[in-house]
Design goal:
Layout (H helix, E strand, L loop, with lengths): L1 E9 L5 H17 L3 E17 L2 E13 L1 H12 L4 E9 L14 H6 L1
Antiparallel strand pairs: 1-3, 1-4, 2-3
Length: about 110
């Protein structure tokens, strides 16, 4: 089994329940093809660097997956036809960084005090 980090960007105008459905849909696909989701992170709505299909923002969802190549190709095949997604990216990694939370909201007062 290989380790993958997989990020999808959903349209900015979908509801939180639709985001939850996307998370469940792609988690089920991974599990159906003998993969394992180690961690699922919802990074939330963030600005895009450039317009993608007339969207300025996107909802980011990040998966840390332990699976084989067939699982990833099936996952990407389903994402290619999903109208709610703007982009997706899969990167194979040697090990997962499970401690660092890069998109955690930090308290501004703590930053100003330092």
């Amino acid at each position: 089994m290989n380790l993958y980090e997989h990020t999808i960007i959903a349209r900015q105008d979908i509801s939180p329940s639709q985001i939850k459905q996307l998370e469940e849909k792609y988690s089920k696909i991974v599990e159906k093809f003998d993969g394992n989701i180690v961690k699922l992170e919802n990074w939330g709505l963030m600005n895009l660097s450039y317009l993608i299909k007339k969207n300025k923002k996107g909802n980011y969802i990040h998966f840390k997956i332990k699976a084989n190549g067939k699982t990833i190709s099936e996952l990407e095949k389903n994402e290619k036809i999903d109208k709610n997604l703007l982009r997706y990216l899969t990167v194979r990694v040697k090990k997962f960084d499970l401690e660092t939370n890069y998109f955690k909201k930090v308290d501004e007062k703590v930053i100003l005090d330092n």
